[in-house]
Amino acid sequence: MTNQHLPDPTGAAPLTIVYDGDCPFCASYVRMVRLRETTGPVEMVNAREDHPILSEIRARNLDLDQGMVVRYGDQFYYGSDAISAISLLSTRSGLFNRAMRAVFEHPGRARVLYPWMVKGRNTTLRLLRRKPISASVDR
Question: Which GO terms fall under molecular function for this chain's record (predicted)?
């Protein structure tokens, strides 16, 4: 995915973010990012809970232990593409949103940084003795 093809945030397309609710970084990120002002309603889905979108994600072979998923309209964005999409769709108000946009709006930069974020997340989950999503949810 290249974010140049990201639709304009008109509020017409439904936005769903699937994240790890047991990850302190993921949960904080989705709480802090400000999307509703630019996209309208946002559905936040904890990947560890039962939700219909999880079967769609599995059908696409997207590993939620390795990346978050954003569905915007009928498009799915995964991992670094998801964080770039969120950065481009979020409001520019607030220091956090401006900083995230500056870092992640460029897909190349996001592709370099995102794997390090995933490693940090996975290390933190191990230290907190939390299971991976794949081991937490009945498939």
Answer: protein-disulfide reductase activity
